[in-house]
Amino acid sequence: MKYKTLGKNLQALVIQLTPGEKVYGEVGSMVYMSGNMKMETQAKGGFMKGLKRKLSGESFFMTEFTPAGGTGIVSFGGNCPGTIKSLELDGNQQFLVQKDGFLCAEDSIDLDIAYQKKLSGTLFGGHGMILQKMTGKGNVFIHAAGDFIKKDLKQGEVLKVSTGHSLAWEDSVDFDIQRTGNVKSMLFSGEGMFVTTFRGPGKVWLQSLTMKQFASSLEPYLPKQKGSSSSKSGLSKSGSISFGKG
Fold it and tell me: pLDDT digits over 27-46, tens only?
């Protein structure tokens, strides 16, 4: 398998596969593929793993891609402006990834779920209860909103990360959800009520943007709809079509 990323901060991933090689990704993440690429959607790992993904807020199904009659290519893209990175697993390590961070992986990679440690973090920490756990040997591709920030923590080194910016980390890293400080800090700092605290050793990947920040930045520019449902649809009470000014 060969791969490359296109673009700088609106990246797409292009993977080249030879016969017998296979990758899988989230439903709807494929951008384009060559004519000889076979695509099959199924419950990756069986019904129970599909059900666990569904309960975590992800798709029950995954889409698998494999070439027929020679080398083929398939491209994947994220769900917001951002960058793509490969994490290479050696068969002995595990990675934990926030559920929106997974893009695609080689068929040799097993995708399962893990749980946040504290209920308070799942309710108020901004991540939800479910994480994605990657095991096996091969490449996993993850997508960050904005750019990646890599931190290599030494034994006992602590890193506190604002809610939503933590993306992926090695399972050797201990993590927890903690309060940002006293009540005044929690309410008025603008950083939210909780932070994710990591303790080394191991590698942590952060994202410079969050989906919440991205959505909030667009909100002032979205069109505001006024009036009744009939005026929103462009129909007047008489049934004729009405047009706005300009």
Answer: 889 999 999 999 998 877 66
For the stretch 114-120, contacts whose Cβ atoms lie closer than 8 Å and that sit 24 or more positions apart, written own/partner, are 116/177, 117/175, 117/176, 117/177, 118/176, 118/177, 120/177, 120/194
Cis check for the bond before 19: say yes or no (omega within 30 of 0): no
pLDDT of residue 243: 40
| pTM reported for the whole predicted model | 0.78
More confident residue, 199 or 209: 199
Q: Is 85 left (phi over 0), alpha (psi -120 to 50) or beta?
A: beta
3-class secondary structure per residue, 217-243: HHHHHCCCCCCCHHHHCCECCCCCECC
Determine which helix (DSSP H) or strand (DSSP E) holds 136, and give its type and residue range. strand 130-145
Residue 240 lies in a domain: no
Cα 221 to chain centroid distance, Å, stands at: 25
The CATH number assigned to the domain holding 120 equals 3.60.160.10
Strands laid side by side in the 194-199 sheet: 158-162, 194-199, 174-179
**Is there a domain that residue 219 lies in?**
no
Q: Which of 89-103, 201-215, 219-233 has the lowest mean pLDDT?
A: 219-233
**Per-residue pLDDT averaged across 159-180, rounded?**
88
- Whether residue 232 is contained in a domain is answered as no
- For residue 127, pLDDT over 60 is answered with no
Among residues 177, 147, 181, the alpha carbon closest in space to that of 161 is found at 177
The distance from CA 169 to its chain's CA centroid, rounded to whole angstroms, is 13
- Nearest Cα neighbor of 175 from 183, 185, 165 is 165
Of the two residues 59 and 165, the one the predictor is more confident about is: 165
Residue 143 parent element (H or E): strand 130-145
